[in-house]
Amino acid sequence: MTRTIFPMEVADISAFAKSLREQLGRLDHKPSHVEMLNLLSRAGGYRNYQHFRSTVCRAEVLLDWQFDGETLPVPDEERVKKTLRVFDRSGRIIRWPSKRSQQELCLWYLWGRIPAGETFSEPQINLLLGALHLFGDAALLRRDLVDMGLMRRNRDGSDYRRNEKEAPLELTLLNRRMKEAAREAA
């Protein structure tokens, strides 16, 4: 398993060392690995290790979205975070979200899993969508993909094809967060 490296920058090494010493002095046992990560993070000015890690990941995302010194629009992390709750660790949609903004991000996710340039019959697209969700309503997903313009179908519903569009920034972030969650689970 590859390990993600999270670099930590400390503004004042003396204050960092003092804070770490004080925290270690309050313990009556040898800290575990996770406790040590939390101690180091708190000494660095973060609430805990998760706070430190989310800050590093956010900075990483921002760097990815820079181009020739010009900052591109930033994806809505809160929307991605809320949408992630409707997925299982295998990347399947557990339940259909009630908020339209989350539904749209789910539809973009499904759009990204449909092979480009291929034509599908209704049973074939149902089978593909069925493997990507657990709530058993491929027809809802199919209709919403067409209504949102992410797929097109013949009037008789015989052929379905993915429309090529520019995906929103949140789709890339959603895919990244899902890969991270899968790696952590493994």
Explain how this protein is built:
- The protein has two domains: 13-71, no CATH class; 77-185, no CATH class.
- The chain contains eight helices and five strands.
- The protein has helices spanning 13-25, 33-43, 49-64, 77-84, 100-113, 122-130, 138-147, 169-185; strands at 66-67, 70-71, 119-120, 151-153, 160-162.
- Strands 3-5-4 form a three-stranded antiparallel β-sheet. It has a two-stranded antiparallel ribbon with strand order 1-2.
- The chain is elongated, with a radius of gyration of 22 Å.
- The model has no long low-confidence stretch (mean pLDDT 85).
Keywords:
two-stranded antiparallel sheet, three-stranded antiparallel sheet, 2 domains, 8 helices, 186 residues
Number of domains: 2
Low-confidence stretches: none
Shape: elongated
- Main beta-sheet strand count, sense and barrel state: 3 strands, antiparallel
Q: What's the SSE blueprint?
A:
Layout: H1 13-25, H2 33-43, H3 49-64, E1 66-67, E2 70-71, H4 77-84, H5 100-113, E3 119-120, H6 122-130, H7 138-147, E4 151-153, E5 160-162, H8 169-185
Antiparallel strand pairs: 1-2, 3-5, 4-5
Helix pairs in contact: 1-2, 2-3, 4-5, 4-8, 6-7
Give a brief description:
The protein is mainly alpha-helical and 186 residues long. The chain is built from eight helices and five strands; from the N terminus they run αααββααβααββα.
